[in-house]
Amino acid sequence: MRVLEIIGSVDPRHGGAIEGLVRQTVVRERRGWHTEIASLDPPDAPWVRDCPVRTFGFGCSTAVGRGLPLRRFGYTPKLVPWLQAHRGDYDIVVVNGLWNYATFAARRSLPSSTPYVVFPHGMLDPWFGRNNPVKHAAKQVLWLVSEGPLLRNAGAVLFTAEDEMTSAQNAFWPYSLHGRVVGFGTADVVGSAAEQIAAFRARLPSLAHRPFLLFLGRLHLKKGCDVLVEAFCRLAGDHPQLDLVMAGPDPGGLRRRLEATAAAAGFAGRIHWPDMLVGDTKWGALRSCTALVLPSHQENFGVVVTEALAAGRPVLISDRVNIWREIKTFDAGFVGRDDVDGTEAVIRRFISLSEDAVAALGEAARRCFLARFEISLAANQICDVLEAVTSSWHAGSANTRGR
Known about the structure:
The chain contains 17 helices and 13 strands. It has helices at about 15-30, 45-50, 70, 80-85, 100-110, 125-130, 135-150, 160-170, 195-205, 225-235, 255-265, 280-290, 305-310, 325-330, 340-350, 355-375, 375-400, and strands spanning about 1-5, 35-40, 55, 90-95, 115-120, 155-160, 180, 210-215, 245, 270, 290-295, 315-320, 335. It has a seven-stranded parallel sheet with strand order 3-2-1-4-5-6-7, sandwiched between helices. The chain has a six-stranded parallel sheet with strand order 10-9-8-11-12-13, sandwiched between helices. The longest helix is centred in the C-terminal third of the chain and has 28 residues, at about 375-400.
């Protein structure tokens, strides 16, 4: 099978979608499949060059006009002609994400000509509409001309969890699609634990060897970063031995506001900001943290949660992370509300545990990862769906030609 993945960007700072895509290709290669990527990135972007999957970047390489609405949307005149010329080179296309020019180009190029599926990656969650009604209204217009027809004509629309598919229902009008829950996941942790932990500690010497809670991801209000910092400041005085590490890129400048909150509470020195962590430093942070904390207001999956499970670390998450049911089922951590009181309660409950109880949570986290989120489980399920969609499309085409 030859698979083309269409995605807005392969920049790892954009989160779990590209991470999961890259991990899936390893499983596909075992089946003899070949995967390539088309993105809106500039072709000379370093993350295009460094992507382990062959990537075609169609974005503009200059800064001219990048602030204009069409450029923010990702408009490029190159993508549609390329898709129309090369769609026949692939057996199936996977469209990742919504609300950018990549999906608009897919809508213009794919229906009725190429079998394809769409992976929304949480972008149909009603949280976005509740928190930005003006943008939601603009999306409704786009839905009528682009996203809606794209999803309606897709062989399948893939969701990572039952909660994600359920909450997406009727997010926009008219709502018609063939939904399939396929899961998601990440690769198992590899490498030397001692070397990775040392790499992380060297990256953040101010932490020394103190125990810490870890947030790992974009610094964004959607992920509850302000909730977490305020909750930590409430309990920090009662637990002077514990620090907080807020690791991730800061695309919107939120860090300054969060630092001000910590400073006002008198705990600025107990919160550490190492920016984005990758490779050994990321795995070192996951291996050495006391627990991962993600009080997100909306998270269709949460790859970082599964990475923490792989590292055998308990996870403290909100019930807006769509894999919270699995965490509760396996006793792999604690789940609470996505507000300050709920986050504080979850953390306090965790840090009151004995060492044996914390170790038991870590062992349960590892079992949860192997049973539900190891990448081959979801990747093989996705491959099965892609094969079924391709077969169905060709059967339908043959029936049409036979009339």
